[in-house]
Write a structure and sequence with these properties.
This protein has helices at 3-7, 11-53, 89-93, 108-127, 131-153, 158-171, 180-205, 212-225, 230-251, 263-288. It is mainly alpha-helical and 289 residues long.
């Protein structure tokens, strides 16, 4: 946002934006935990289920969730203290290293925290601090978590995609973003659109071009933003994906046949559509006209 606009805004708006930024930093720290632990939790649950069905002892009987055990250094096992867990600041003070063994700490942690804080401030500034603005925060936080998990594991967990879908329908019960009818049709059309592409691609090539999580994510975006926004989201995700894919091939020397998850591009397109989808759609319609 322009600095001049922020400085001359109403004090209540400025205060709400700053609070959202601080809150976003804290949520960003928690999202780092979610991104790391949720895939492990799913894998442990699957292995326990397989063992149970086979009549064997459960391989994982210790508590492991988003809260327990406490975060530790993966190299030396040092338990992270509260002072070492302050978003962004702790990483800077520690110079990106564990306080005990001096092993490097990924810069992704403070980046996720900073991006989440900045995005929280932008959304509250754009949509206000009422029900509308708060709902967009939930939307953004779930998309951030899904983006990173899909990037790391090439999967989009149902534990995130399905709540996003149902929350979209709930938010639109009273037409917060779109009428409920448009939200329901958007969820159905979003799922079926990529489902159809998946099966067409598989029939033609014999390969799987995307996962079922992508269908559910687009269905969730349709539930939030309505069926009319789906073409814009698909076009935006394709453009973002093409730009990132070409950049990875040219600058990072990534092999062309190396699979790239589509979820992050859908998530990025969903955020762009949330903020600027209506003017972008009108612009596209104007070009076609």
């Amino acid at each position: 946002m322009p600095v001049e606009t922020f400085l001359f805004a109403a004090p209540a708006t400025v205060a709400a934006t700053l609070v959202a930024a601080l809150f976003g930093l804290l949520i960003g720290s928690f999202l780092n935990v979610v991104v790391h632990r949720l895939p492990i939790m799913s894998q442990r649950e699957l292995e326990n289920y397989i063992a149970h069905e086979a009549g064997k002892a459960l391989p994982h009987q210790d508590r492991f969730n988003l809260m327990v055990p406490r975060s530790r250094c993966p190299h030396c096992g040092h338990q992270i203290t509260a002072l070492e867990n302050i978003p962004v600041i702790s990483w800077l003070v520690l110079r990106g290293k564990c306080s005990k063994c001096k092993a490097p700490i990924s810069a992704r942690y403070p980046v996720v925290e900073a991006v989440t804080g900045a995005l929280s401030a932008l959304l509250i500034w754009h949509f206000g601090s009422g029900w509308l603005g708060l709902s967009t925060l939930v939307f953004a936080y779930l998309l951030i978590a899904m983006t990173l998990i899909d990037y790391d594991t090439k999967t989009l967990p149902d534990d995130l995609t399905l709540p996003l879908l149902w929350l979209g329908l709930l938010v639109n019960m009273n037409g917060t973003f779109v009428p409920l009818r448009d939200a329901v049709i958007g969820a159905m059309a979003g799922y079926l659109a990529l489902w159809s592409v998946y099966w067409l691609f598989k029939l033609v090539t014999g390969k799987e071009g995307m996962g079922y999580g992508d269908f559910k994510l687009l269905a969730a975006l349709g539930a939030w933003l309505g069926w009319a926004m789906l073409p814009t989201i698909i076009i935006l995700s394709s453009v973002v994906g093409a730009l990132v894919g070409i950049s990875l091939i040219v600058f990072a020397k990534r092999a062309r046949d190396n699979p790239i998850p589509f979820g992050p591009y859908l998530a990025a397109a969903g955020m762009i559509a949330l903020l600027y989808g209506i003017p972008l759609t009108r612009y596209g319609q104007g070009l076609l006209a």
